[in-house]
Amino acid sequence: MEIDWILDRLKQGGVVAIPTETVYGLAADASSPAAVKAIFTTKGRPQTNPLIVHVASVQAARTLVTFTPEAEALAQAFWPGPLTLVAPRRPGAPVAEAVSAGLETLAVRVPAHPLMQQVLQALGRPLAAPSANRSGRPSPTTVDHVAQDFGPTLPILDGGSCDKGLESTVVQVLPDHPVQILRYGSLSPQDIAAVVPVAEGLGPGEASPGRLLRHYAPQTPLVLNITAPEPMDAYLSFGPTDHTGPCFPLSARGDMTEAAQRLFAQLRAADTSGAPRIAVAPVPDRGVGLAINDRLRRAAGAVG
Ligand code: TXA
Ligand code: MG
Question: How far apart are CA 129 and CA 126, in angstroms?
Answer without folding.
Answer: 10
